[in-house]
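Run log // design_07
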């Protein structure tokens, strides 16, 4: 770039005529190197947008002349190119204390799943090709046998998430009934999941008519029996995994409900939501109903998630009788909700881990984090405390504290696990400005190269170390945190 005009004095306002041309800017040494790396079209577009922005500022009299110095313009162009090529999705360190965090990607995929995904995405694969027959295949077949083996189901199919699984199940089974499309559900099970997505809305979207029975806290067998008419197409039971009603309660279990449904020739579907495949109580965790138990109790269809307690990718898993799954699989809506090859590969590899139950707590990250002993987490906190204290001093004090982790924000949200971590609070006894100080600290943590996500509670910023398996990556960022806090 040519040197700026003599009229451009530091502190004076820039004029639009002082802007360099696109050609002159791109032939400077820095931009020329970026063109070689990223291509002329991309860099030229960023340069054009930058100069348009600078021109608008200059016309408005809001641009200092020094902003058009060659080094300043090149630096602005480089920053613009780098920002445009920076992925919006990035890895973070989840120190919130919530293991299966809805907003942070839920379950962390096991290493075997990631390796299988990379291998399958690197080239063509048999997504819908039957290698034995040499013709078109069914993508469900990649995981159906695994799901049947693990749950005892006669058949299985999969869709892109559990809300889709419930939607498809209701739509397919309700449409098959000649008399009507009424679906009977207990009033106490009309749950709302993330994003204000409510079970009544799901049913309406599926073209079914909701029939509520019982009350919020108590539903009896007779409530279902009285509600069944010739218009009834399906009985539905929903496991309330994201809240609990305690006290004076009553509910009808799947065994009793299946007897009621089958006596009238009706199917029974159960949505388990978070969907554990193994009894978690063997590790001291809350026991969740299992798909295999629901099927044994007589349910015709069971739906559950792949990316919660199961520990895999986002998926809606549908298992059940051969007749019911057949209707679901052939329902027209199924194609719109099917899984793509990437999550299918991850799901297959995750399900295979369950064939080796003795190793599941080691190989499945979700279970490994949930079963991590509190004493080992506390020892890690004590080991890292001096380095963290040095990074945030003198503005903040760091204390090792006992904490309670949460299993999931939408899965078993009321259950707590003993844990440990750090409490960071402004130094000194003055309480004025505590909130803004903690907000600034939380922002500095989020703006690290590997963002650190904690939570603010009781005038402290808490960093729960239950999900911190790579302490080296955390410590490596502490100098950058110290610099940001300045």
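design_07 sequence
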């Amino acid at each position: 770039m040519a040197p700026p005009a003599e009229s451009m004095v530091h502190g004076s306002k820039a004029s639009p005529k002082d802007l360099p041309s696109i050609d002159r800017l791109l032939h400077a040494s820095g931009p020329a190197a970026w063109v070689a790396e990223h291509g002329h079209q991309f860099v030229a577009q960023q340069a054009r947008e930058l100069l348009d922005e600078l021109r608008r500022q200059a016309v408005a009299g809001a641009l200092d002349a020094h902003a058009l110095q060659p080094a300043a313009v090149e630096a602005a162009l480089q920053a613009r190119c780098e920002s445009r090529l920076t992925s919006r999705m990035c890895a973070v360190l989840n120190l919130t204390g919530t293991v299966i965090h809805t907003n942070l990607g839920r379950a962390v995929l096991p290493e075997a799943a990631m390796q299988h995904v990379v291998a399958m995405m690197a080239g063509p694969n048999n997504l819908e090709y039957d290698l034995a027959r040499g013709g078109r295949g069914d993508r469900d077949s990649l995981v159906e046998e695994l799901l049947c083996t693990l749950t005892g189901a006669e058949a299985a199919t999969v869709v892109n998430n559990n809300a889709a699984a419930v939607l498809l199940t209701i739509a397919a089974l309700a449409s098959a009934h000649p008399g009507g499309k009424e679906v009977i559900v207990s009033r106490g099970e009309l749950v709302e999941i993330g994003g204000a997505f409510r079970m009544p809305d799901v049913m309406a979207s599926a073209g079914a008519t909701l029939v509520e029975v019982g009350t919020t806290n108590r539903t009896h067998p007779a409530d279902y029996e009285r509600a069944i008419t010739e218009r009834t197409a399906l009985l539905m039971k929903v496991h309330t995994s994201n809240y609990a009603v305690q006290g004076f309660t009553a509910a009808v279990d799947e065994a009793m409900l299946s007897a009621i449904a089958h006596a009238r020739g009706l199917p029974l579907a159960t949505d388990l939501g978070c969907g554990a495949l193994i009894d978690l109580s063997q590790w001291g965790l809350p026991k969740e109903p299992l798909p295999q138990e629901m099927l044994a109790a007589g349910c015709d269809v069971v739906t559950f998630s792949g990316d919660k307690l199961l520990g895999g990718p986002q998926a809606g898993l549908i298992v059940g009788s051969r007749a019911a799954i057949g209707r679901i699989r052939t329902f027209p809506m199924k194609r719109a909700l099917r899984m793509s090859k990437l999550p299918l590969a991850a799901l297959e590899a995750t399900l295979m881990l369950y064939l080796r139950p003795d190793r599941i707590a080691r190989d499945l990250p979700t279970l490994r984090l949930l079963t991590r002993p509190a004493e080992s987490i506390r020892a890690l906190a004590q080991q890292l405390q001096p380095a963290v204290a040095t990074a945030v001093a003198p503005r903040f004090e760091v204390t090792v504290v006992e904490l309670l982790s949460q299993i999931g924000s939408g899965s078993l949200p009321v259950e707590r696990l003993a844990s440990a971590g750090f409490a960071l609070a402004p130094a000194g006894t003055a309480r004025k400005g505590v909130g803004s100080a903690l907000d600034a600290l939380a922002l500095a943590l989020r703006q690290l190269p590997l963002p650190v996500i904690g939570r603010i509670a009781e005038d402290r910023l808490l960093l729960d170390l239950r999900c911190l398996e790579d302490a080296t990556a955390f410590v490596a960022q502490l100098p950058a945190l110290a610099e940001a806090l300045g």
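The first helix runs from residue 22 to 26.
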